[in-house]
Automatic annotation (TrEMBL):
Residues 1-156 form the Glycosyltransferase subfamily 4-like N-terminal domain. InterPro entries: Glyco_trans_1, Glyco_trans_4-like_N, Glycosyltransferase_grp1. Its EC number is 2.4.1.52. Residues 165-330 form the Glycosyl transferase family domain. The keyword Cytoplasm does not apply. This is Poly(Glycerol-phosphate) alpha-glucosyltransferase. Keywords: Glycosyltransferase, Transferase. One of its GO terms (molecular function) is poly(glycerol-phosphate) alpha-glucosyltransferase activity.
């Protein structure tokens, strides 16, 4: 499940609870995650990857907007952002907000498309200041037309539960005293699991632990082969796609993120809300997010990542819990979905 998709649904749920009318238009029809609130209408356009039905999809979206008559149209990620900007050429919108979710959303062509359609949006946002600076630096947007707006999570859903810890550890036959590292995310180049496996191999030279990885992706076979080549496959537990990630957050002792690039990773907020001890690479907004409540190391450097993991694991469980308490409090104050929803409402109000 993508973090951006979950963020859209969480925002829709929160805005709906505040009395807003919400319609979500999905471009492709491939829906992995849905809003929890039934009042939020979800419509799929069925847009094909080869774009052969692009114009019919554009006109259908125009008709949907005509019937719904929104005060704000808010698109998320590259394809929806470009689609909604082009849609504005044929359908009046009081305001169009376009949100990117990463420092990198493709190559030069995508950055070119962002640049030439920039004036069709009312305002653009990104999920970390680093990501904003990256877009401006690549010439995708003008310096005054993109602002930082963080992601938020449902802190009531992600919280430490002792019974979840026991249940999930029993599932993989790990005692409460054994060290369990956790990483969650798609098995893609951006997440740099290659770096994580090499770092874990270095860590295991003088330590003992298990590493659980939740996620699937195009690099799955390659990464599993790498674990075998490094002779650490008996220490790595591949959990594939799971719908109970929040329970695994309670089961782990240390959460590790090895990404090469990010925007603002929601999964770190989820781990922090679950009182996790965090080790992360320095990419996107991770440094600001984790500063003082976790370990931030250089990206694409297995040796440094291994040291970060070792430093976290050297702490007593009581010390990790104390760090986790501070981490959860930070998320509650700055990154709860309710707090972020208030920020969006203020922005929406300023545009209408």
């Amino acid at each position: 499940m993508g973090g951006a998709e979950r963020q859209v649904c969480d925002l829709a749920d929160s805005l709906s609870a505040l009395g807003c009318r919400i319609m979500i238009i999905n471009l492709t029809g491939l829906i992995d995650v849905k809003p929890r609130v039934q009042d939020v209408e979800v419509v799929s356009l069925g847009l094909k990857k080869n774009l052969t039905n692009f114009l019919p999809s554009l006109f259908r979206a125009s008709k949907l907007l005509a019937g719904f008559n929104p005060d704000i149209v808010h698109s998320h990620m590259y394809h929806a952002n470009i689609f909604s900007r082009l849609l504005r050429l044929i359908r009046r919108m009081p305001a169009l907000v376009c949100t990117a979710h990463n420092t990198v959303e493709g190559g030069r062509l995508r950055m070119f498309m962002y640049r030439v359609t920039d004036k069709l949006s009312t305002i653009n946002t990104n999920v970390s200041q680093d990501a904003v600076d990256s877009f401006i630096g690549q010439g995708a947007v003008s310096s005054h037309r993109m602002i930082y707006m963080p992601n938020g999570i449902d802190v009531s859903h992600f919280c430490y539960v002792e019974s979840h810890r026991e249940k999930r550890r029993n599932e993989i036959n790990i005692s409460n005293d054994e060290l369990l590292l956790l990483s969650v995310g798609r098995l893609t180049a951006a997440k740099d699991y290659n770096n994580l496996l090499h770092a874990f191999s270095i860590f295991l030279e003088n330590n003992c632990a298990k590493l659980a990885i939740i996620g699937t992706g195009e690099l799955e076979a390659e990464l599993k082969n790498l674990a075998k080549e490094l002779a650490i496959d008996s220490h790595v537990i591949w959990l594939n796609r799971r719908d109970d990630v929040f329970q695994w957050m309670s089961a782990m002792d240390v959460y590790v993120m090895s990404s090469a690039w990010e925007g603002m990773p929601l999964v770190l907020c989820e781990a922090m809300a679950s009182k996790g001890c965090i080790v992360t690479t320095d990419c996107g907004g991770t440094k600001d997010l984790v500063a003082g409540v976790g370990f931030v190391v250089q990206k694409k450097d297995a040796q440094h990542l291994a040291v970060g993991i070792e430093n976290a694991c050297k702490l007593s469980r009581a010390e990790r819990i104390a760090i986790g308490e501070k981490a959860r409090e930070r998320v509650k104050q700055k990154y709860s979905i309710d707090a972020i929803c208030d920020k969006w409402l203020k922005l929406y109000s300023s545009l209408t």
